[in-house]
């Protein structure tokens, strides 16, 4: 069991406090590229909905992805007109880049984004962020493929969406239903640790974020949505699908080699302080049993095929030993990766050596069964030998699982010392957020490193990084300014 004393783990989720009226709890990002026409009605409609229905302070951030039309001017005018609206200009394209830039610098504890066309009905926004505010979940996504969803779109997009999600389920074992719906939210503490692991800066950003979060054991909440396709969408389906497939291959390879430090994203066993006092809690027993049974069934079939092949040339004891040896090596490697989730090459030799000891125990059981069968009668039938071996292997399988779980692949994450009431728990290690790229009157201009994003900070807070956040107004540009 991992606890919050483990290095790099996230703290327990907590319900966000109501806070001061001027502190934004939710930051909704709208990534745009050449959306001078659709941007004003989108922002005004979203702002009206939030002002009418959302019980916390909020902010709307327009993330301009290097637009070449008048979108930056339109965004600046909206920011000057509406106090809760801000804008960030990026000189490089990419929806993922825009979300990473704004989310990494935002001071709001809940971060969300939606497409500028507002294809998703806004009544789903509060159900989307409520589980994050309450501390129940880490991420939330709108799903167009849930049973309760109501979707209006053409057959081409429907086919592409469902085919893509089937690919994710088959290749990356994803369990979420809709990766690409432009309607998602994440807690800031999770984003601070998860975003540095996400490489994509384009449309695959969503999928990579969700896959890594799910593999790390974070909780993803799904909300059925009402969704109407935008017939004027500028998304290039073929190019986007090609880039997504490349991303699937890259992420799958990284997961297979164990190169991603997903352990830094783990949560405590429970969020109640009493749960964190528990020790020796079994970790993933049901999933490990299922994986072990699947691997065991395939290994048994492989073993029987090998035994039958070796039996053509050698005696039963030699054939049994050879078949069990080869299948044991394959079984240990498969259980190491699939059942107990050990990735990378570290400890592989030791695991195989321990697996051979377990193999020796299994060999003793099966060899003893064959010896007893031969002692009971001369020249038993081949079918009888197989039946006896199957029964002996079942007994050896139970013992093998117990030895694998307790000795070969033990869960050592619960061995770290737990904090005591007189000893504060070690702090978590997420990267401290950069100052928010939002502006108030009398701002000074700076540039966020390595993002290509121009940001504006109030002069008072340029020298005081601990200043209390206030209502955001990212641009003080005069509406008549033609920059």
The overall strand count is 11
Shape: elongated
Order of helices and strands: EHEHEHEHEEHEHHEEHHHHHEEH
Using only C-alpha atoms, the radius of gyration works out to 28 Å
- What distance lies between the first and last C-alpha atoms, to the nearest angstrom? 56 Å
Can you describe this structure?
With 483 residues, the chain is an alpha/beta fold. It is 45% helix and 12% strand. The chain has helices at 39-53, 71-81, 95-105, 125-134, 155-172, 188-194, 205-215, 237-257, 285-311, 316-339, 348-376, 382-408, 459-462, and strands spanning 26-32, 58-65, 85-90, 110-114, 139-143, 150-152, 183-187, 220-224, 226-228, 443-447, 453-458. Helix 5 runs parallel beside helix 8 (237-257). The longest helix has 29 residues, at 348-376. The N and C termini lie far apart (56 Å).
List the SSEs and their pairings:
Blueprint: E1 26-32, H1 39-53, E2 58-65, H2 71-81, E3 85-90, H3 95-105, E4 110-114, H4 125-134, E5 139-143, E6 150-152, H5 155-172, E7 183-187, H6 188-194, H7 205-215, E8 220-224, E9 226-228, H8 237-257, H9 285-311, H10 316-339, H11 348-376, H12 382-408, E10 443-447, E11 453-458, H13 459-462
Parallel strand pairs: 1-2, 1-4, 2-3, 5-8, 6-9
Antiparallel strand pairs: 3-11, 4-7, 5-7, 10-11
């Amino acid at each position: 069991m991992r606890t919050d004393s483990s290095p790099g783990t996230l703290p327990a989720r907590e319900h966000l406090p109501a806070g001061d009226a001027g502190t934004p709890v939710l930051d909704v990002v709208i990534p745009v590229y050449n959306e001078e026409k659709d941007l004003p009605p989108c922002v005004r409609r979203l702002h009206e909905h939030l002002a009418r229905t959302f019980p916390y302070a909020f902010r709307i951030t327009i993330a301009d992805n290097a637009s070449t039309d008048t979108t930056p001017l339109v965004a600046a005018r909206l920011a000057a007109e509406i106090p809760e609206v801000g804008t960030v200009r990026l000189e490089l394209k990419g929806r993922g880049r825009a979300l990473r830039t704004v989310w990494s610098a935002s001071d709001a504890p809940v971060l969300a984004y939606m497409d500028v066309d507002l294809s998703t009905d806004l009544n789903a926004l509060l159900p989307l962020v409520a589980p994050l505010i309450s501390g129940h979940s880490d991420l939330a996504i709108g799903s167009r493929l849930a049973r309760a969803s109501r979707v209006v779109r053409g057959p081409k997009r429907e086919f592409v969406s469902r085919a893509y999600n089937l690919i994710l389920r088959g290749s990356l074992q994803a369990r979420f239903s809709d990766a690409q719906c432009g309607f998602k939210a994440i807690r800031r503490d999770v984003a601070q640790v998860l975003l540095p692991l996400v490489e994509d800066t384009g449309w695959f950003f969503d999928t990579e974020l969700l896959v890594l979060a799910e593999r790390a054991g974070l909780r993803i909440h799904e909300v059925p949505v009402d969704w109407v396709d935008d017939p004027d969408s500028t998304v290039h389906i073929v190019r986007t699908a090609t880039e997504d497939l490349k991303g699937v291959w890259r992420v799958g390879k990284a997961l297979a080699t164990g190169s991603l430090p997903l352990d830094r994203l783990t949560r405590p066993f429970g969020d109640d302080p009493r749960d964190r006092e528990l020790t020796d809690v079994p970790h993933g027993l049901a999933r490990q049993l299922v994986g072990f049974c699947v691997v065991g069934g395939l290994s048994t079939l492989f073993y029987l095929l090998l035994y039958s092949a070796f039996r053509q040339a050698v005696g039963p004891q030699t054939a049994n030993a050879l078949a069990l040896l080869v299948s044991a090596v394959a079984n240990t490697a498969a259980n190491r990766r699939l059942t107990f989730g050990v990735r990378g090459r570290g400890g592989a030799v030791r695991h195989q050596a321990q697996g051979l000891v377990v193999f020796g125990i299994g060999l003793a059981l099966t060899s003893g069964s064959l010896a007893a069968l031969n002692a009971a009668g001369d020249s038993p039938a081949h079918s009888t030998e197989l039946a006896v071996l199957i029964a002996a292997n079942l007994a050896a399988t139970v013992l093998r699982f117990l030895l694998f779980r307790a000795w070969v692949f033990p869960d050592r994450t619960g061995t770290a010392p737990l904090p005591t009431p007189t000893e504060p728990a070690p702090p978590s290690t997420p990267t401290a957020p950069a100052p928010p790229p939002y502006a108030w009157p009398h701002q000074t201009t700076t540039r966020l490193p390595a993002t290509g994003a121009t940001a504006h900070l109030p002069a008072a807070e340029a020298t005081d990084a601990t200043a209390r956040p206030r209502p955001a107004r990212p641009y003080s540009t005069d509406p008549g300014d033609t920059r």
